[in-house]
Every structure is written in C-alpha cells, then in structure tokens.
Specification:
10 strands; 2 domains
Length: about 300
Amino acid sequence: MTTIERRPTTLDHLEALESHAIYILREVVAECERPVLLFSGGKDSAVLLHLAVKAFAPGGLPFPVLHVDTGQNFPEVLAFRDETVDRTGARLLVASVQDAIDRGLVADPGPTGSRNRLQTTSLLGAIQEHGFDAAFGGARRDEDKARAKERILSFRDAFGQWDPRAQRPELWQLYQGRVNHGEHLRAFPLSDWTELDVWQYIARDRVALPSIYFAHHRDVLRRDGMWLAVNEFVEPRAGEAVERRLVRYRTVGDATCTGAVESSAATLDEVLAEVATATVSERGATRADDRFSETSMEDRKREGYF
C-alpha cells in the first residue's frame, strides 16, 4: 500500500504576511483604474516592489513606479533605484521637489535646509497630473502612532488630504477600493508587518537593498542626538566635529534628516540579530523630521504626506 505524504497546510508567519500583501496588491489593481507604486529606494519599498513583481508574474507590473525626489538623496539609494527599475522592467516616474521649487509651488529651504516635508506638494502634483486613483506605499503601522491609525486602504479627498475619522471599516479583510472622481486611496500592503518581519523576509527571499543598510565607514557628525552623514547637504556647524565611524542606516530618507546608527552589522544575519534586540523604532531613532519637526506625522499626513 502506497503511503501518501501529507504536507502541512498552515502558513508560517512570513508566508501569511506575503499572501495577504499579494492579495491587497491584486485587489487594488482589480478595483482601481490607474494605480502607482511609491518607491523611495528604502527597504520597505524594495520589499513592496518585490511582492508586486511576485503578485503579477509572469506578466509585467500593471502600474508604474513613482519616486518623489527631494534632490537631497543618498547617492547609493539613487543608484539602487535605477538598478532595480532596470532589473524589474518597471516604468519609472520621478516627481521632483526641485521642479516644484523652480515653479514657485514651494519655498526653497536653502542649500542645507531639509526638503522632506516639501515632498507632499510634488506627490500630490504627480497624482493629479497622471490621474492616479491609488498609490501603494510601504508604510507600516509599527513605525509611528499616526501610521497606526491608517487603514489598509486609506482614503484621500479631492485635495489629497487624510481624515482619520472618515475611513471605511475593514472587517474580515474586506476592502472597498471605490473612489469618486478626483479622490484617491493609499494602499499599504505592509501595514501589519514589523521591522523584524521585513528583515526576515528580505533574508528569506534575498531581496536586494542599497548598501547603506549594512555597516560601512562614513564621515559623520553628531547633531540632535543623531549621526548625520557629511555631504553637500550636511556640513559641520560651529562646534561640530567630523568623525569617521562604522555605521549603517535603519531607514532611508532625505540626507538632511536621516541619521545613521553605530553598527558593525555587515551581513543579513547580523542585521537580524541587531533588529531583534532594538528597543526604539527605526524612525524614532534616526529621523529628525519625526523627532524635531514643528508638525507631527499625523498633521503632515492630513496634508497629504506619505
């Protein structure tokens, strides 16, 4: 008598997270006419793009990829963006903050001022210009208390603004993606993931990342309790010393407000071990725009921020 091997039918936690994220990607594409995927070049958007490629294989991506370029990016991240677009065959769109400054839509903060908050104008302009009715983002609820209020499908009005009190219920993972003309939704397939989940998935699927996520020597200075990379956008002020240190980045953003952490974690296994023992979220530890901004993340999101 032949014995039939029965394989377990339950998914492990990464398989369950992946399955749900792919379901969200497919559901939004099925319900919306002109979606787009927001791609910063960071680890979360890299995982999101990797999931999107999986979701629609063997066909190509049914939507373009949009990068909101502040003009103050880390060169490694821009190089990674271009390499990733070439590898996946994605169609890249770039919304330029510099263009918005040149057109007088936003005020120029100066050569060393942060342009991070100015991304909202460029993002909303690109959504309006291309008629996008859905934008996939890599935000996670564990990053910030404002992001914890987001639904999986988070609706924006005709002005691109978010009202946390006017969101639709999402019972039993049932999602309503219909929007009126001029409105759009933000879709967050990674909402229920944690930073550790993201890194475990990166290790499992060998998702490519920019090199700055791993330990490397860099010229940095200490400002506002963070190590900022010295570059054309961040120069030492009076009393600030430039030091050569072994660092890595836990999150990627505008170079003027994204800090590094001292670390010797140069491999995936070493990063996983470090993240597993972290007691502060990556944004809380290394993003000046969250820690020292005059406006909270929730206020910025109400205006149309990511």
